[in-house]
Design a protein that fits this description.
Length: 350
């Protein structure tokens, strides 16, 4: 079965800035998908019935392959849906190695990693932003950050106010960098000087779209007068993404049970890979294909560990087979920002 015949199901909630990255990508590339809407805080039984412990949003299922982390999701969509007349390219051309390096990890790390743009943006959430003072939300996010649910929240209204000056400095520095480099030059609409947005734009713009939507930036020092190119770029991207969404139409929305039925009733999107025996982590941990392993993110949500059978591992990706309520799925996690450990007392069984 061709990949294009498999269901694509995006598990997300509407206001997730990370999920927007994937929604933009799918719409700009005209890749149809189905959505399974989730609550912004745990529990998420729709995800659990897939056999997935991952607590962050979004995650994407293509057939019976489930992909974690937006960086890996974008890489997989690039690989599984190559540019065509039906699905226009968003990647930098092969003739632009600098652009490919930017969307291959440099900008992604800058915006996503702990201490990066997104995490500074968290401390700029306005004091009156709906829901952010809800004790359930604060407890949920404390747990995601590895703290006891009853610990003082690191993102409470008071904590955000204390961190705001430093966060403003970090965001302002990033705005200046983009304003004076990738957005500089007459008629440069997109970061790589292309005719339409690329993955580089998606990687860099999502934090600024999120901040603009919350009206989180002081207009006198960080508004359009101070950074005209950057704000024009953000507005241009939003218009382009909105037009693509309107053209493609609203995705079908399914319940968790309906989504699970689609996943478990489908084929796998990818061939089963191998474990790279020369990989330093494979060597250090003594890993073999078929070992029972646990995989988890190292920055946030680390208390939620995937458990399953190791299927493949490379420098870029870990794949394990997990048991869901309706059958087996393959869970894919990136190597960057994730850790893998053999379960004690287990050995190869494939």
């Amino acid at each position: 079965m061709a990949v294009e015949d498999l269901p694509i199901i995006l598990y997300h909630y509407v206001h997730s800035p990370y999920a927007r990255r994937i929604v933009w990508y799918l719409n700009l590339r005209k890749i149809p998908y189905t959505q399974c809407l989730q609550p912004p805080i745990l529990p998420r039984p729709d995800v659990a019935q897939l056999g997935v412990a991952y607590r962050r949003i979004p995650l994407l299922a293509i057939g019976r392959d489930v992909y974690l982390d937006t960086r890996l999701i974008l890489q997989k969509l690039e690989a599984l849906y190559p540019p065509s007349a039906a699905h226009p390219a968003l990647s930098a051309p092969a003739s632009d190695p600098a652009g490919r390096a930017l969307h291959g990890g440099l900008l992604s790390s800058w915006t996503n990693d702990a201490g990066g743009l997104f995490w500074n943006g968290v401390f700029l959430m306005p004091a009156d932003l709906p829901g952010t003072d809800d004790p359930r939300f604060l407890a949920d996010r404390a747990e995601m950050m590895g703290l006891p649910r009853d610990a003082p929240s690191p993102i409470s209204k008071e904590a955000r106010a204390a961190r705001r000056p430093e966060a403003l400095c970090e965001i302002a520095e990033a705005m200046h960098l983009l304003e004076s480099t990738l957005l500089a030059g007459e008629g440069r609409d997109w970061l790589l000087g292309t005719e339409r947005p690329t993955l580089v734009d998606i990687e860099a713009v999502f934090v600024f779209v999120w901040l603009a939507g919350m009206r989180a930036l002081p207009q006198d020092t960080m508004g359009p007068a101070a950074f005209p190119r950057l704000h024009a770029w953000v507005a241009r991207f939003v218009r382009t993404a909105d037009a693509a969404e309107k053209e493609n139409g609203e995705p079908a929305t399914v319940s968790g049970d309906e989504a699970a039925k689609l996943v478990f009733g489908a084929a796998f999107a990818e061939e089963e890979g191998a474990v790279d025996g020369g990989n330093p982590v494979v060597v250090a941990e003594g890993l073999q294909k078929g070992d029972r392993v646990r995989v988890w993110p190292t920055d946030s949500g680390s208390g939620h560990k995937e458990a399953g059978t190791l299927v493949s591992m490379t420098l870029k990706e870990i794949v394990l087979e997990a048991q869901g309520k309706g059958g087996k799925v393959r869970v894919h996690a990136p190597r960057h920002g994730f850790k893998v450990k053999k379960d004690a007392g287990t050995s190869s069984n494939l």
